[in-house]
Amino acid sequence: QVQVVESGGGLVQAGGSLRLSCAASGSFFSINAMGWYRQAPGKQRELVAHITSSGATNYADSVKGRFTISRGNAKNTVYLEMNSLKPEDTAVYYCAAERVVTQGSLSDYWGQGTQVTVSS
To answer: Which residues of the chain have pLDDT under 50?
Structure first.
């Protein structure tokens, strides 16, 4: 079984910064990619930022230049540095470990989410 746990959410004023962390643990051989997604009330979950095992990244247009995704040395951790936050960034942020290779399977695993609230 693979567990994904996020941390670092909270309440911040517009223009402020937050850093989210995510760690995957359990029994697996490798993780091909990790990503951050978010879901605001009444909206669909959307991709925020994504990073592959080789370090390739991509971002939602709405966060380019403000957010930075990075992976830890252990490759089972991922971070999201969020700067110049806006009220429209308010959402529950989810971490995903994608295409995780375990004994006999290739699956995605999701965390429970962490709330980010940006006040105006």
So the answer is: none
